[in-house]
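Consider the following assembly input.
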Amino acid sequence: MSWLRIVAISRKEVLQIVRDPRSLLIILVIPFVQLLIFGYAINLDVKHVPLCIYDRDGTQTSQDLLKHFQATDYFAIAHLSDNYQDVVHNIDNGVCSVAIVVPPQFSEDLRSNGQASVQAILDASDSNSASIGMGYAQAIVQTYSSEIQVNWQQERGMAAGAPSISFEPRTWFNEDLESMANLVPGVVALVMAVVGAFLTSLTIAREWERGTMEQLISTPVGKLEIQIGKLFPYFVIGVADTAICAGTAVWWFGVPFRGSWLVLYGCSMLFLIVVLSLGYFISVTAKSQLGACQMALLATFLPTFLLSGFVFPIDQMPIVVQWITAILPARYYVSILRNVFLKGTAIHLLAGDIAALATIAVVLVFFATRSFKKRLE
Amino acid sequence: MRFREAIERIHQMLRKEFIQTLRDPHTRWLLFGPALIQMFIFGYAATMEIRHVSLAVLDHDNTQESRELISHFRASRYFQIVKHASQRGELREGIDRGDFVLAVEIDSGFAQRLRNGQGASVQVIVDSSNSNTALVALSYLSQVGATYAQNYQIDRIQRLAPQVASFVPQVSLEARPWFNEGLQSEWYFVPGVLGNLMLILIMNLTAFAVVREREIGTLEQVMVTPIRRWEFIVGKTVPFFLIGCFDATMLTLVGTLWFGVPLRGHVAVLAIGVMIFLLAALGLGLLLSTLAVTQQQSMITAFFFTMPMTSLSGFGTPISSMPPFFQELSYFNPLRHVVFVLRSIFLKGVGLDVLWPNLLIMAGFASLTLTVSILRFRKSLE
């Protein structure tokens, strides 16, 4: 091993990166753009669900009920229909996701039988929003029901009261229920996985495809020297991207940071080693840059996005998929980040995650080094 | 005669492209393998629904009423009681460790307040480090609370005035989830995944194919042949268009046969929607290829575009909860339109009468990107 040769390889790689300033700029801007989108546009809260109202009863009673729907944040009245066809049309073309239909006999039923029901039609093609919307609609109708019962008791001179339950939720760790705070760790992991594995996945494949590998092989440089020399510049870029992500999140968006920067950086570097080795391994194995790119996409972007618990909770997945997530580095990294950012968990509580990440790192570095053969076939 | 020559040249170009793309088994696998794997992972892993929210209870009141409330939680299919705590400290620790997401603490005096006809409050701690789970859990909570209060009130009236109890007014909600009666996540995600995979696959393939020739230097060789530029572009894009059609068919079959997503609309409408979108993805890929010299560049640039396009397509989060600016911005995103079109065809079964504006916008996007890239392509060669 010679430092000189490692530096030479690194220098060549850096030159190649720097000569393409647009790509470098994009790599450094991607984390910022991603956070901007996740910060301003992506909202997992279901609020202001566009609502369509079709009041076939048209009495004071039905209006009272509908006022309850107007009063909440969860629904926003987008349309008033006067026929059923119109309701169907609005749901079909997506103008409204929920329609409340009050039947014509509503107030009459309520007066004479004491029982009445309203219909909620939900566009369940978005199953998540539909089930949350349904929960709120149920709660609104039941609250209304309680209110009229109180009136009914008072009218009859009964000792009326409104026994109601209110939950006083205290939300811990992410007090304002900001999707942002929840998503930041995922975005950091996503950006690093992509930068790390995506870029390195091309480094060796490119040399093979362009034919420059033969020149490299004819030099005295060793396998390990190539590996370290090639990966080092991307390691630096990865560290810079982490800083950009974390800095933007904390100082621009005000995401709480309760843990230690040291733990954040230590774990991030470990994760970088994992993804860089993975990218290198892919690069050595793949025949072409197209193949390497597709494999890297499959091996990093998707698992990080889908299976790391970033957006979709792992404990809700089928058990087999949960087992698969156990070998994913991103899963442990996202968990560490979430703890470091929001909970400020002490390092000994993170030991399990860190150990898992370190194990994966060792295995991947081993395979990456083994896979590269310094000879022409 | 000139037309026949053009056809012949395109034919030769197509032959070359097909041989080049399909020769290597590795590349052949790349054309449909990753898409298939991603479809399966998405179908199984992407679930937003939250069932069995883990819950701990601490009952200081220990009355019939408080136990009744706890049994409401037990009966709800949304919650799973994992711990009956005896002191407040246990709740705190459990939440810290992540043993449960929700801790409910019923104060003493809960039953007394209810009996007096007052509002009783219950303290709840929510671990909101996953804000979506927390939000869903809160919506379930309010539902359980409202149901409990309703039941309590009716019981109370029955006790106090059994003779009139059957006349107590009561309003109920009949929820009818249309299009996806079982509220299954796969039904929601599969059509969206189809659109996303098509975009990523076709855009990348197209961009890489042209840039690869440029990077390796074979583009110049092609250009010294009598082939014209538009013929070259037709030759480059047609194979990927066909691959896209093949993949879309494959993914549709997996979605319907494996995941059981209904295809309620007309297959012809689906085909029209997919093909228009494929043209848009091709156009975007070509446009990228005119912007890039190396494959690495085209990959990075493609990634730069796809991440925001995916995020703002309404594929994972509803567009209606985005701020107005982003909602308007998303109209320029072909992916938004195709996700809507696919979901509408699969689940709602609507036809061209509803979907024509979206198809028109996608077609506009396709013709714009294709035209611009043909014009730019000419320049980038000189």
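Chain A touches chain B through 125 residues (CB under 8 Å). Ask yourself how this observation constrains the way the partners meet.
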